[in-house]
Amino acid sequence: MTMQTEDSQTTAPRPKRVRRTGPYKAGDARREAILEAAIEHFSQWGYFNSSMPKIAAEVGLTKAGLIHHFGSKEALLSAVLELRDQRAVSAFFAEDFRNDPLRYFRQVAAQAAFNESQPGLTQMFTILAAESSNEEHPAHEFFRQRYANIIEHTSALLDKMVAAGTLLPGTDVRQVASEMLAVVDGFTIQWALAKPPISLHDTIRNYLDRLAKSITTNGRGLDD
């Protein structure tokens, strides 16, 4: 799912930063370099077609050296997913929604355009989300918690808009949040499979335009 939530940025406790020096600081820098290389490889070739030795070589390491930092390809994947989410949250909430649903829906569409610009990583993310329904999958807990958080925090955001009078009173915000999650993910899967490709941004934006017209108090769409 491409959508992020305000509360995940504004209410989640932030871990205390610890000043690291010497070999610890160097180790952090090496881990960051590995993550950047892994994001690039996963974006271009996807998770299964990406090579641990090639990722290691890009940052001047052997495969054994990479394993020293991340333990396994699955552990590297988990770190990439977490970093991707952190960056998406920051990008998504650079704009103040001011209880304006049109601002919010436009930002969701913009996030879809960003995901479309990273086809390898987005396709990998979509595949792993489906695979992670298996409790033995290394990313199972990550996706389980992520989807629960998206629904919870999006519901809270929409509920504030109902209270502010910009969404219709009586709107079932949890149902809307669940529907958005399902539709955006479903369109992303269709986009990943489509030959010739469809526009993920346009498809999701058209859906959000119809949604906005049906639940905003002024009945306006994204282009109004």
From TrEMBL:
Keyword DNA-binding: yes
InterPro entries: BetI_C, Homeodomain-like_sf, HTH-type_TetR-like_transc_reg, HTH_TetR, Tet_transcr_reg_TetR-rel_C_sf
Residue numbers spanned by region Disordered: 1-25
Domain of life: Bacteria
Keyword annotations of the record: DNA-binding, Repressor, Transcription, Transcription regulation
DNA-binding region, residues: 51-70
Residue ranges constituting the HTH tetR-type domain according to the UniProt record: 28-88
Skewed-composition ranges (Polar residues): 1-12
Name of the featured protein: TetR/AcrR family transcriptional regulator
Organism of provenance: Arthrobacter vasquezii
Lineage: Bacteria, Bacillati, Actinomycetota, Actinomycetes, Micrococcales
